[in-house]
Amino acid sequence: MLYKGSDFPDLPAGTVNYFGFSIGTPAATAASGNIKVYMVNTSDAIYSRGTTWTSIISSPSAMALVYDGPLTIPAASGTFNIMLQTPFNYTGGNFYLAYEWSTTTRSAVSAIYNTNNELPASLVTVTATTLAGTATLTGSSAFRPVLILGYPTPGSDMSVMGVFAMGKMALTSGARSIQARVKNTGTTTLTNRTISLSITGANTFNTSVLVSSLAPGAERTVAFPAFAPTVLGSNNLVEVSVAADDVSGNNSKQVNMVVTPSTQGYAQYPTVANALPVVNTAFEGNYPLTNPTPATRNANFLAAFRATGPTAVTAVNAYVPGPAFSPNINTTGVTVYGVVLNAAGVEVARSANKVLAATDLDKMVNFPITVPPTFSNNEVYYIGMAQPAQALPANAPATIYPMGAQKENSGLYWIQAFYRSAEGSNTAPVDLFDAYKFVLEAEIGTVNFTWTGATSTDWNTASNWSNNSVPTASSDVVIPSGVSRYPVISSGTALAKDLTIASSASLTVNGGTLEVKEDFTNNGAFTATGGSATFSGSVLQVIGGTNPSTFHDLTISAAGASLAGPVSVQRVLTLNGNLNTNGNTFTLLSNATGTAMVVNAGGVVNGTAKVQRYINPALNAAAGYRHFASPVTSTTVSDLVTGGFTPVVNPAYNTATKPGTVRPFPTVFQYNQSRLTNDSAATMDFGFGWESPASLSSALTPGRGYSVNIPASQTVDFTGTLNNGTVTVTGLGRGATAESGWHLLGNPYPAPIDWDNITVPSGMMDAVYAFRSSSAYNGAYAAYVNGVGSLTGGVIPAMQAFFVRTTAPVASFSFTNAARLTSYQNPSFYRTTETRPLLQLSASKGQQQDEAYVYLEQGATSGMDNSFDAFSLPMGAVRVFTLAGTSQLSINGLGYAAAPQQIPLVVEGVAGAYQLKVEQLLNQFQVQLEDNQLNTMQTLTSATVYSFSHAGGSTANRFVLHVGARVSGIAEAVKSMEVKLYPNPSQGKFQLQLSGLKASSAEMTITDLAGKTILQKKVKANGGTISEAVELKAAKGIYLLQIKADQQVITRKIVIE
């Protein structure tokens, strides 16, 4: 006999010690005689050893004689074995087995041997009555006597007997447990063995379970933590494995799983062309069912499933056997229907009747369920194909039932079959082992979760829902009208697949997260005063409805979303995928509490958007100049129109000898430094650079700034395509006058930017200046340079314009996404812990105020330094600055000096009573204020307020700041230490370098802007230098790095992108 390795995929290579047979029906008496057994490994796929006994055992290669001796065949059913005299080394694959049997005593009636008739019909047997005669060949036989091969028993051997997973798993079915059967096939007890599950392909999943103890010969079914697929695909390889042991060939098994949109079943049909629907794959669970024979052949063909979450059965797919499966089956003209039963066997739903035609045979047939039933979580149900009571076709033999039924079992059998008793008896299906297992599939859908509000307004309370359970990611949720209480999401995560808010109904989110897997339809009222909404589907999602939807924070998944109604965002829009507006209104809101921003994390907004900028009256409740920049492309001056403001332009202003007399006087200006000349005092002045746009249709160029005299409490909205990526402005010249080189630029993004993350090109000074209006024509510039200034943390809000200055012509200046903030934080959080000696001094008269800064840093000088200082721009009714030579500075960085330094301080404004107030005095900064007019000297403290009278104009030569050296030798330590971080911004990995250190180590602490410690460790110095690779596992945002060493603290800003 030729045995093929493909017929025995689990047969391991190795030493065979014995072989035997299995007797089904024994003979009346035992038989005795002598037997010779021959075996040989072969690559033959078809029989090729000749037709005579001599050729069979010798050609083309000699078969090994492994046994030559007595044999007694018992007169009892069961197995019997023969210990081989010469063990056979089975190498795997195909092999021949031949035996020569001569009997001395035997029964008149032969025994019947157990066989396997399900294997392919390719076995060839050779029989002969005499050894010298010509043998009779029986080709293409499906006959297989059960053959027993024995191996040496290993000491430590755990076998994976089977993997039980769905052949088809619906994406909507939720999480299911995959199981496996393992057996101790060794001689020693196995302890603490890990059984691993790995899913690779379209979906990935890895987990394991521990078997604490398993005795020799014992078996165990293990259940793994539930797996929930997220991606459709047919290439999901499910593998269960154990660690290598004495026998490696049985340490793993694999099955394939298909993840479908809504179809689930145990088999995959068809797996190959013309494959028969014999199920040989997986199981759902172990159900305790009885085992009688059916009372009648009028039956159901069923499969058992267990619901994971509320489940609706919408259709049944059933394989209808026909002549291709077996010539004994002919079901043409038979009436059948799809059926759904509950766990007790009660029919709860069915399809319409179908009369089977020849075109239905040997294929899957779909039976839509008329009224889909629903099942709750963990509830068992049956689906199948049923027959009404009817006569069978005339040629149907008594041994063939028209339909069978299947279920999965956690034992060694992959699948068992069972029948249901006659239709209408309402009894549970019963087991019946059968060789044929046909394919059944359930088409499942999610069950609507309808809000009732029976208990409270809490979304997460089960009794508030029609199904008495909280919706999951596979639940279609409906918020109907007419209930007494409507849902509120305050914490945690509220899940839904499709979410519909009916007309006159409402949903409120004031905390937590609303996560939607598919579509969101708002036909009622959706209110979001806090929390977030995440659209996390794997396919394009639709957001809309007849009524506007306003989200607090909105996140779009990589699959993207499409609008089907008006939508707006109050705080942060995070785009992992694209958001398509489809012509619907999409608005980024702005009000007194904040302005919305966009994080482009792999996606963009496709289509037109509105970006609002609210003018907060807190600093100036009246009209005044506000500096704007456009966050969109292709918009014009006319887009500045609001309900209470219409922009005015007049190009005559640009050529007038006396521009101030031009009427109508423009309310919109841009700045052009090339207008400044040395022709007169007027043309040399900074203010001469202002000019009016040519018309209301003039473009608002992204990256450029505009000054608009507009009332407070107005909301300007810019309409167009949102700017994203690199935005470049060109032609930043430097004229010949003392006031030349100023350029009004603007944040081009619908998000704040961090000036510290801007690459300043050669020829441009580091300082930036943003105007803050305080009255119709007055205000002050908030300057920022080198981490110092009143522009908080160097953060420039969305749509904010600002001045920069060039020292030489700059061909181009670029904004990039690297400068954009990616998290929404209160601006006060951006104040870093200052470690340098610093004085912040304000000068005020009534409500008008200006500020000046003086600080110490190694490398700065007493002159004008491009990287340390910022000019004071003339604009407000009150102005305060220090002098560095003739340069008027709002921020003045000084180097460390052994002797005190004298810094002139100037206040400008109309006559009246003034105050100089210390706003900040940090890090042992010793400063004295000298008033030469009153001949006084006062040491400044953090509480100092100095009042004085001013005759008007400038206080030049009146005030002097005497800046002393730092005490305790700390100045020298600061001089010598240098901190570098690169790259910064980073993806979370950066290098810290600290040089000039006297101590042997330093303490490094990283906190978020709220002060929470993210990382803290001690880093060692080598020769006064620290070089440390740092990995920060934290969300995108801004963090503070603090180094404590040599009796000082150094703080730097870290940006994680």
Automatic annotation (TrEMBL):
Residue ranges of every copy of the Secretion system C-terminal sorting domain listed in the record: 981-1056
Domain CARDB intervals: 176-243
Family annotation (NCBIfam families): Por_Secre_tail
A Pfam family that the UniProt record links to this protein: Por_Secre_tail
Descriptive protein name: T9SS type A sorting domain-containing protein
Superkingdom of the organism of origin: Bacteria
Signal peptide: none
Annotated source species: Adhaeribacter soli
